[in-house]
Every structure is written in structure tokens, then in C-alpha cells.
Amino acid sequence: MLQPPWNERVYRNRHGRGMRTPMFGIRLPRYRTRTGMFDDMVAAQIRRLNEAWPDLIQPLQFAVEDVPPSDPVPWQVNPNMASQCFPASHGIPARVVLYRMPIQTEARTKMELQLAIRDEVVARVAELYGRRPEEIDPDWGF
């Protein structure tokens, strides 16, 4: 019966002549990249808002892109480079898009990054529904 290499007793040497030991232990979580951690933080904020406002959040689509488009639409005088929202039209649901690189470059710590993500998501949802961000999340802006 074939066994995974970490269950075998003998490993081959580390001089390029065979398999090495596993890089991560079988019980340790794998290393997360900055992109993966950013996606997890966005998903956590969406889940948090969905618990408070399921009627508002469930019909929306959320996306994360690396950078904003290079040519903003002509009717935006001061385009927001951190996030953008698109109203529903022609059978396409309303969408909120967060741009990872502009948000990450402004945040210095993990806590600042989480707060920036929260503020962007709340601001875009409030913009889509024509409400103030404080109505969606009372902690917005702190």
C-alpha cells in the first residue's frame, strides 16, 4: 500500500538525489500569502455585514481585484481608487469591487488593513442603497 512521504520512516538526503521532508507539517496551516489574507479579511467583513443586514448584502456581488482600471469613466470627477460599486442593470446584480493594492499600500498594520477594508465595504454598500455609512455600520470611520 502506498503511503504519503511524511508517514514513511526514512527520507532521502537533501543533496538533490531524492524527495525531501514535507515543508509544512501535516497539522500546521499552510502559509498564507498577502493576497489570501486580504481575501479572507474581505470575506469576514461581508459575513459580519450579512449577519446584521441579510436583505441588503445577499443580493450583492463582491469582488477583489489587484488594481483599479487605468482609465476611469468620464463622469467620475474624483474617482475612488480603493473601491468601486456598480448598480444593478439588465439582469446583472449590483457589484462592489475592492482594489487590493491601493488599500494595502495605505495600511501599515494588520489592524489598519482590517479597518480600511471594513470602511470601504460599508461605504460602497451605503452608496449603492443611498444611505449614510453610519446607518449600515455604527463603527464606520473610527
UniProtKB/TrEMBL annotation:
InterPro entries: Zincin_1 (IPR010428), Zincin_1_sf (IPR038555). The lineage of its organism: Bacteria, Bacillati, Actinomycetota, Actinomycetes, Bifidobacteriales. It comes from the Bacteria. Pfam families: Zincin_1 (PF06262). Coiled coil: none annotated. It comes from Bifidobacterium colobi. This is Metallopeptidase family protein.
